[in-house]
């Protein structure tokens, strides 16, 4: 079947609309119809809707390739990236779009994940704390073991899309809970041989009910992460590490 | 000068004791149901189990010490109390949390979160029903046996308590053990997680069937 011969079916989008900036605006679900094209993603569809039907529609995107993490939203009940979701996945052609829960709403499908991520990074100190404070830039860095580098790289793949936070009922119930993204990033520094922080230091930050001991292992993070990061294993790893420091 | 070292170890110990008490209770529960199901093999088997639990082999006249059962009931009640007090930290207790959970469930489709809700609901039901069960058994340990238990279950209508308790406790325990295994990393890859999830459903189903069969097996002894 050639692409030209395919008459696209009609997709129905049911989109959450609310602009907190506009006085008197009320949250509502609005229906849009759009003809499907081959290889269409939810991200492409949203751009066409905005160009052709409603210029006021708000949503975020940058890279359209699953790298920037901007276009995360709840698509038919699953928090994920719009740019990596093919409309073909939905046989009925009904697609419901909601903004990620748990973040400040900018408008419609756009949420302020950046503000959250920055606050989290400052709170958990998510940057490298070098072992020595010797800041001689002329000194050659010690090479890193490739196995260790590969482990770190695996965790560095996080794009801070916010899906794990939205998919976590624990986080929704407890605002101060750090969520999978925070624990993932801390685990990354815990594994890094250049970082001077020890288990005691990490315990101060996540050895409590806002961290690993408040996580109820609902695994929304693991099951929805668009980058397939190993949240389940990492959180269990941190939990065991933290538990070991108790004795 | 004394350096104050307060890093709050309590939350860690609480989380560990929730998992540990849960696993102990689950193991007890499954053992308990297997012992009770001896009624399926006939009244002699059940009598033997009941007597052995009362340590009849230690006494010359074979009467044993029924208070051993009372002691077990008290110990279980204590472990349950620990489990409840710690697990309560994880429950959505105020209205804001309950609304957040409700919205999350309506917005995000996620199986393991729904499993947890079932665990929370069954946990509350168990918390309400279990003390009655422990009291009935702990206060009259000598009545345990094919005829005494049958009388309790069917003549005194305690099946009304046992049936919902059986369903709740078997769901709660299997889901809980699955969660503990995942939580502490006993299950590492996603394939074994989905396998364990299937196994835990099968365990729930088997024990519920065995439990119902055992309750029915007491019927013939109820009017005797």
Description of the structure:
The complex is a heterodimer of chains A (247) and B (224). Chain A has 247 residues and is of the alpha+beta class. Chain A folds into 2 domains: 101 residues, Beta-grasp domain (Ubiquitin-like (UB roll)), CATH 3.10.20; 132 residues, Alpha-helical ferredoxin (Fumarate Reductase Iron-sulfur Protein, Chain B, domain 2), CATH 1.10.1060. Chain A contains 9 helices and 7 strands. Chain A has a 5-stranded mixed β-sheet. Chain A has a two-stranded antiparallel sheet with strand order 6-7. Chain A starts with 9 loop residues before the first strand and ends with a helix. The mean pLDDT of chain A is 92. Chain B is mainly alpha-helical and 224 residues long. Chain B is 73% helix and 0% strand.
> Structural class, from secondary structure content of chain B?
mainly alpha
CATH class division of the largest domain in chain A: Mainly Alpha
Low-confidence runs of chain B (pLDDT<50, min 5 residues)?
A: none
Return the CATH architecture of chain B. Up-down Bundle
Strand order of the main beta sheet of chain A, please? Answer: 2-1-5-3-4
CATH topology category name of the largest domain in chain A: Fumarate Reductase Iron-sulfur Protein, Chain B, domain 2
Shape of chain B: globular
Q: What is the count of distinct domains of chain A?
A: 2
- In one word, what is the shape of chain A? elongated
Architecture (CATH level 2) name of the largest domain in chain A: Orthogonal Bundle
- Percentage of residues in strands of chain A: 5-15%
CATH classification class of chain B: Mainly Alpha
Assembly state here? heterodimer
Low-confidence stretches of chain A: none
